[in-house]
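Reviewers asked in the last cycle whether our approach scales beyond single polypeptides. To address this, we selected a multi-component target totalling 660 residues and predicted its structure end to end. The input consisted of the following lines:
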Amino acid sequence: MQHYLTAFSTIFLPQNLLAICLGGLWGLMAGALPGISTSMGVVLLLPFTYAMSPITAFTILVSAYCGGITGGSITSILFGIPGEPSSVPTVIEGHSLAKQGRAAYALWVFLLCSIGGGLFSVFVMMVATPVIANFALRFGPPEYFALTILGLSVVSGLSGGSILKGVISALFGLFLAMVGTDGITGVERFTFGTSILLGGVSFVTAMVGLLAVSEIFIEAEEPFKEYKEASGYKGMRKEFPKLSEFKKNLTNLIRSPIIGTIVGALPGAGATIAAFLAYGEAARTSKNPEKFGKGAVDGLMAAECANNASTGGSMTILLSLGIPGSNTTAMLIAAFMIHGLQPGPLLLSQKPDIIYGIFVAMLMANLFLLGLTIIGIRAFLQLTRLPYSVFSAAILILCVIGAFGLNNNVDDLYIMFVFGLIGYFMRKQGFPIAPAVLGLVLGDLAELSLRRSLLLSLGNPLILVSRPVSLLLLCGAVFSIIYPLLKKPKALKGV
Amino acid sequence: MKRNRLIANGAVFVFFLFMLIHAFRLHEIRRFGEVGSGFWPLLILSSAAILSFILLIKEWKLKDGEKKERLKEKEEFPGKNRLKVFLSILCLLFYVIGMPFIGFILSTFIFILIFIFVLGERRKWRLVFSPLLVTGLIVLVFGRLITMPLPKGIGVFAAFSRLFY
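The resulting structure, written as structure tokens, was:
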């Protein structure tokens, strides 16, 4: 308790409060603007922290981290451009709501849920860091494989009308993840001699093409209209969600941050699997599964809670074990080293002021972000009032910048274009896109962990079911696959 | 309409089959006692080929009632203006191809101008000012503020781009 009181008094110093504001604002911008990811936002901030005291430096960096995760969803909802793979469920539901003229409402739901999820994970981080760290340490290749299978099992919830098409779409995503150089043997796979594909298919480029570019092509089929439907929102105040909507989703709102925090603590899994798992669970248990893919509020709530809750999980594993759970926390390791600190078990005993300071800084950053994001949302909402034709052109240019900004390479633009065409074909033929993205994101981890498991067991596949956590996750996956088939869901129309 | 669907699903099947054949070659690349590079591709692609074949057969066997229902669905789908889609795709293709040669500013300006015209915009003031405004704003934010190394083009186009970022 003493440590927390000291940490609060430190964070409330003017320079640290300013650091929270600036870091949060920068993170929001980095997350919201295509072409700059959260991790890049943190990297760009890093040189400015050299001259700062360690606690101010970490305050500004973790604020940018939290801001980036939050900001990414603004463009996902308004323009359908996912900045990170974890934003895909937000695009599916949030952007569908925006297209129905409920952009402000979707943004409120996202904001409240993401801040709520973030705060939950910080509280968990404060009280249960050692427990979560120990749990995460028990994850070996078989557990990771089982986790990816559990992640893939939500395909039925993302499949729309045809589960068969959903599974084919997911298999296509898994195939895309194989393209490039094999992580174990170094063999080139499905590159057909082109250097563009040697490094594999980038998540963000593929997602931008499949989701955003293809949608512009679909919209081009419609007759000319002056404004997009999304421009008809009623205003932020009038669209504030009712308390009863949150009450109805209480279980979802409790379950999703827990999934986010636990899965976020697993290195390499992080926010993406967390968001998809929470979204899949919400789809599976929803009373209105037919609304998924068409703007289901419970889906948006689940994805946003889990997405932001993963920040706390990721920080837990970084601070307690020194293992980065995501790209951004890997950048934070560099910040620790710059300030002469080594994240890991000893840090808590040697420098408790830093650790508790980070906990409190994350807590305060999430609270500050509530206000900052409202300002950001108001600014971005104005863009939806642009004439439809100009708006569509601007979206395509933002897509181009988003794909180009990853590696500053024009080759990524060709890949984005091809995926735009593939996405258009898939939409026209009724293949849902979300399972393909899920397959692409999880494919690499699934393959590597399966092959590593088989290497460990000298080729015996029983290793996958002989460890309790792995067995439990696989049982969960089987249940998740069978349950919707037994339940015979109503016709779901996915993206 | 059914023919189109059959062709599309047939194309999906052929795609997975082609990749599956390619994956068989990968299967031979492995060290003793190790799961090779082809194991996972074979597993995934054979499943995909089988499922896409099932989908093709299902589509083939679609009953008349279901067919009519599907056709009705199709009519409701806003697929009115195929030419606009084709031209939009061409616009984006030429934008992406042209950008490294003529630079971001010029290619973006021309792209917006043509793209909004293709979408149906006919007011002259909007056709002129929208590309100017959007290009200016994007260059200001991404080229100047964030200093993203946007493509400058070659030769005289590069000299022109350097005036702005």
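The radius of gyration of chain B is 24 Å. We regard this as preliminary and will revisit it once experimental data from Aim 1 are available.
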